[in-house]
Amino acid sequence: MSSEKLKVIAIGDIHGCSKTLKALLKRLDETFGDSREYVFLGDYVDRGPDTKGVIDILIDFSKTHKCVFLRGNHDAMLLMAYPKRDMLDWYDNGGDATMESYQKGDSNINIPQKHLRFFINTKLYYDTPNWFFVHGGLPPDKTIKESIQNRSLWNSFLWRRDHLESEDNVWEKTVIFGHTPSRSPITGKNLLGIDTGCVYEHYGKLTAVLLPEMDFVQQKRIDF
What we know:
Radius of gyration: 17 Å
Largest sheet: 5 strands, mixed
Helix content: 25-40%
CATH topology: Purple Acid Phosphatase, chain A, domain 2
């Protein structure tokens, strides 16, 4: 699809808030249907009450809409912890809520294979002609092209925040990211952050941005 025709809806960190996600997707679907590409910026899991429900919703939504699912740092922690059953670090970072959503009345956590495939198939970044989508961020002193070519940086795409402390960047296009919660979207030169802290009481909104319009659609948290 050409850059002139590509229209995107990017959605920020969900963190187990299935009711809020469902409400936002319903509003977007009623207006835009399958006419746009949906890019989800990761962190589907942890802290919120219903990670399992979130993944069920996203899998079903992707059957009728073109979707790109990026990997967040919390999704990466799940992928590292679950196969080894080494849960402690993940548990301390909000994984306890995810574990509870997959438990079936006992202490055993059992993530369905289709959910594991969903996590495994998430992408570290998504590059388009006009925008670069990533969960965390990129080094502000390197071009996007340089960062992509340096595979040693890829894991840091999940965690970076130093671009927010920089007065400038050398990016070739706008970087759309999540990961860093704020009361309202973070805007600046070549950057847009849309994690508005859906899971946190003092933020409490799930944000979507329409591109290229740069219009925001927000859903107040309804999971707690």
